[in-house]
Specification:
six-stranded parallel sheet, alpha/beta, Rossmann fold, eight-stranded mixed sheet, about 775 residues, 26 helices
Length: about 775
């Protein structure tokens, strides 16, 4: 059978001799299999595939087309698994592998690089494109299943070759209450089951159901097992057996339950009906972190999904949402919706920093600067954005740089092993274990691990210490153990089966010291949430954290969407209780001055340590440094030091303010406390001995001559005292009005005008309580 892509073969071969090329073609046209074979006639080819499952299946299929054993002419390399050697002509790899190889030798072994399915716009594919373009030593072949390739063509200054392909008509059916009903998870399993029953009646080919994730796939598989069809789950990390069932035609009718891995990356034969849930799991930025959310797909994905049904014959597509649902036009690229920490570090390893590269789309400035700041804080990049020795060590690790940094910061081999095993569990996308559902098992677990610590539990799970007390996911646990072994090897530590015992409290305190922002303290609010000064979290139902926990260390979270951003909740899924005293001993939080006192000639200060606006400790200590300045200011204000100075300063500054107000000159004068504090710093007070060298006269305040100011205040006093009555005077010079306010005294009636200073030209009023009267 002639593949649609064959129509551009001669033009493709003629083009790549002299320049890069962008190829657009529908999924199933043969571009992912034929282009690498054609390019291999001119040199070794590296094919970069966004997904592991596509990487391995395409390598196997292309090897069969070349009549070659897998690993000879055609091979692959993914995390934890390789099948190729130095003589292999075509190697399929994931973007992460390609980047690591680029760091090593800039892919010197390959003459041609194919970036396949580029329309998925993963961040690592965007970075690879920028690096290869800058290096300019390879012939680049960019493929996309969509027709929106003009920007790619302009960016590479490369022509676009397009293969039309063959598309049969596809009838669409929308199952929704309203034509604008958006995709929803509500009763999803029930609606999928109904649609599958309808499809089995209306089509004889296979049925491809698009679902958002593994959990929904397994739930639907359970609900559909009574139907007369082969139920095939297909998701990243599924078993080889299920992959083979999905990728090869069977004698019986199949229902393939797939994530969007089946949109473009894989060719699934004999599909005549697509059931589209309209949902996908998509990353988002929340509080500077990448989180995974459940979202409605974009119009671009909807077009890709329907295309699966009309590949070889007329088909049908059942949409589980409204015909006019307001879907977004296009799924945003990852660089616009994810944290850029790994991106910036990778650029620092492979180039002269992220700003030295030109990208197809500009990076979001806020995300870029946040990533640069984070990497600076852990010492992974230098001031020029280039990776440091630590950064180059961290990036190749199969975990995020911040987690790799945590391993490096552990003070002992035993704690390094413990944190590696913990990080291995965190790094697996799927849930590795679940807490016991039965009360008896939960009680047994609490007896075995009485500290209600998720960290301790996760390490025990990966080390096989719980003897079936928790339910584990075999595939996820196996992946976690692979992470652990790889990290242990990278740090020259014993294998997992020889894991050393560790001190739980020492581990928690070492993590808190390395990443103090991961410490959360219970807030005094109705929600009972925990804060770190930036965000608030609550323990999830998958955490063992109890209600009486006052503070905790949080290593992993997920977010629950609300009606608005303020209603969104962040849940802690992996946490450890942390004694409040640890926060104080590690000096987490900020000190705030409370009061000061003098004991036997020595000045002491009482301070509170606060974290996330919660007071965690109060203590008194000999005042020094900044706190000595605060203490002296406080003591002068309370007349415990330089008696009478504060009141004299207060009155003098008030007199100056009144004078400047009278001559209508802006004053910008400090208050008495501000002046005293600034003067103490100016006088160089750093130790208690320095106080002995200071006299009250050192705090004189004078910006107007004594004679001039004294004459003015004589006419405009700040206070007026007559028998049994003291009043404060407020002047309104522009209004020509004076207000006398009662301060103290036994006198009940208002003062007489003759008892007061002249206040020539001013209207005089008297105020006591809320009553104001004119004085005639």
């Amino acid at each position: 059978m002639t593949l649609p892509i064959e129509s551009i073969k001669s033009e493709f071969l003629a083009t790549i001799i002299k320049q890069d090329v962008v190829v657009t073609a529908a999924t199933g046209s043969g571009k992912s299999t034929q282009l690498p074979i054609w390019a291999a006639s001119m040199g070794k080819v590296l094919v970069v595939e966004p997904r592991r499952i596509a990487c391995t299946s395409l390598a196997e299929y292309v090897a069969s087309l070349c009549s070659s054993k897998l690993g000879d002419k055609v091979g692959y390399a993914i995390r934890f698994e390789t099948e190729f050697d130095e003589q292999t002509d075509i190697v399929f790899v994931t973007p992460g592998v390609a980047l690591r190889w680029y760091f090593e030798d800039k892919l010197a072994a390959y003459s041609h690089i194919v970036l396949d399915e580029f329309h998925e716009r993963r961040w690592d594919m965007d970075l690879l494109l920028a690096l290869i373009k800058q290096h300019a030593k390879h012939r680049l072949i960019l493929t996309s299943a969509t027709l929106n390739a003009q920007s790619l063509s302009r960016y590479l200054e490369a022509p676009i070759l397009h293969s039309e392909g063959k598309m049969y008509p596809v009838e669409q059916d929308f199952i929704a209450k309203d034509q604008r009903t958006m995709p929803s998870k509500d009763r999803l399993v029930e609606r999928v089951a109904f649609a599958c029953q309808q499809a089995l009646e209306d089509t004889h080919g296979d049925i491809l159901v698009f679902l958002p994730g593994k959990g929904e796939i397994l739930a639907c598989a359970k609900a559909l097992k009574s139907l007369e069809a082969i139920i095939v789950p297909l998701y990243s990390g599924c078993s080889k057996q299920h992959q083979q069932l999905a990728l090869s035609q069977q004698t019986a009718q199949r229902i393939i339950l797939a994530t969007n891995v089946a949109e473009t990356s894989l060719t699934i034969p004999n599909v005549t009906c697509v059931i589209d849930s309209g949902l996908e799991r998509r990353t988002h930025l929340r509080n500077g972190k990448t989180v995974l959310g459940l979202d409605a797909i974009g119009q671009d994905s909807a077009k890709q999904r329907i295309g699966r049904a009309g590949r070889t014959q007329a088909g049908m597509c059942i949409r589980l949402y409204g015909q006019y649902a307001p879907l977004i036009e296009r799924t945003p690229p990852e660089i616009q919706r994810e944290a850029l920490t790994e991106f910036v570090l990778a650029a620092g390893c492979a180039a002269q920093g992220v700003d030295s590269l030109s990208f197809i789309d500009p990076l979001p400035e806020a995300s870029k600067q946040r990533a640069i700041s984070t990497l600076h804080s852990i010492g992974a990049i230098d001031g020029n954005q280039c990776a440091t020795d630590l950064g180059r060590m961290l990036y190749p690790l199969p975990v995020d740089a911040e987690l790799g940094f945590l391993i490096e910061k552990m003070p002992s081999s035993t704690l390094k092993q413990a944190i590696i095993d913990l990080i291995a569990v965190i790094s697996v996308p799927a849930r590795v274990y679940q807490l016991p559902a039965h009360v008896e098992q939960l009680e047994q677990l609490n007896m075995l691990l009485p500290n209600h610590c998720d960290i301790e539990l996760a390490i025990a799970v990966i080390r096989d210490k719980l003897d079936g007390l928790v339910q584990t996911e075999p595939e996820a646990l196996a992946e976690a153990k692979q992470f652990s072994e790889q990290l242990r090897e990278a740090f020259s530590l014993p294998s997992l089966e020889k894991a050393a015992s560790y001190d739980r409290q020492a581990l928690i305190e070492a993590i808190a010291e390395a990443r103090p922002e991961w410490v959360f303290i219970k807030r005094n609010n109705r929600r009972g949430g925990f804060g770190n000064g930036k965000i608030e979290v609550s323990p999830s139902n998958t955490s063992r954290i109890t209600e009486n926990t006052k503070a905790m260390l949080v290593l992993d979270t997920f977010s629950l969407a609300g009606k608005g951003s303020k209603q969104a909740m962040t849940m802690a899924t992996l946490a450890a209780p942390l004694p409040i005293k640890v926060l104080a001993s590690q000096e987490i939080g900020e000190l705030s001055f409370l009061e000061a006192y003098i004991d036997k000639g020595t000045i002491y200060t009482t301070v509170a340590r606060q974290y996330a606006n919660v007071e965690i400790s109060v203590c008194s200590t000999i005042a020094k440094g900044e706190m000595l300045i605060d203490a002296c200011t406080y003591l002068i204000q309370k007349d415990k030091l330089f008696e009478g100075l504060y009141s004299r300063l207060n009155e003098n500054i008030a007199s100056h303010k009144l004078y400047f107000d009278y001559i209508e000159k802006p004053d910008n004068l400090p208050n008495a406390s501000e002046f005293i504090r600034a003067k103490l710093i100016e006088l160089g007070v750093e130790s208690q001995e320095d106080i002995q060298l200071i006299e009250a006269e050192d705090f004189s305040f004078q910006q107007v001559g004594d004679w001039e100011l004294g004459k003015f205040i004589e006419k405009h006093p700040l206070f007026v005292t007559i028998p049994e009555l003291k009043m404060q005077v407020t002047y309104f010079f522009r209004a020509k009005r004076v207000l006398l306010e009662y301060l103290e005294g036994k006198r009940k009636d208002a003062p007489k005008r003759w008892e007061l200073p002249s206040f020539s030209g001013f209207k005089v009023q008297y105020k006591k309580a809320s009553k104001v009267i004119d004085i005639k």
